[in-house]
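Quick one from the shared queue. A colleague (R.T.) flagged Phosphatase PAP2 family protein as missing a structural entry in our internal table.

Convert sequence to structure tokens.
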Amino acid sequence: MGSGVMVVKRFFIDKTVLIILLCYSVAWLILDVGGGDVYFASKLYFLQGQQWLLREHWLMEEVLHTGARKLVTFCVLGLILITLYFSFYAKSHRVLAKALFALSISVIFSLVIVAYFKSITNVACPWNLSLFGGSEPYYHLLEPRPSFLPYHRCFPAGHASAGYAWVALYYFLACLVPKWRFLGLGFGIFFGGLLGFVQQIRGAHFLSHDITTLVLSLLIAKLCFMLLYKEFDQPIVKVKR
């Protein structure tokens, strides 16, 4: 218990964590306060003839939304099964089992925590707003919405979390094959960015919604590996031995 508390304390003063939070603060000021969200969404909206033309397109809806969600569900279930196998049946691979366990917990927690925040933040989607063909006024992220308006679950970006959750592969590979760790990070960012852009072009999210999901996924992954894979809290060169 005590060691876990110490890890959490180190997490909140970790240089990487502080840099991520600083970058997020700057992005939030530019996109939400500075109007970047509305600017970028307007570009996508006008490119489609001042409508969300691709909202119901089969490629966006059936393949990159519903299909991608099913694929990620399958991948998560597969990851859990592989983790169980190496944890209980292939015990000689102790290091791999620990890394897989941390990866599984990180991916699952990223999905769950993003979904939880979506349920409590009450933020509208672009397609709900009068600016983009809807009927509701625009409110900044920290502005309270009047109670008479419909309750929405559009922040942070839930669909993008299915991709961004896999940024945890950076830490997974840092533990096992450090030279490949940036491939894991790149995969998670690319996959999450693709799913996020699909939702943005459909009018479901602003850019800041996606960036928030990415930041949450990065922080959750780092904390999970610090807590569950003790060797990760050491320099990578030591893990490599």
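The chain has ten helices and no strands.
Residues 234-241 have pLDDT under 50 and may be disordered.
Added to the table.
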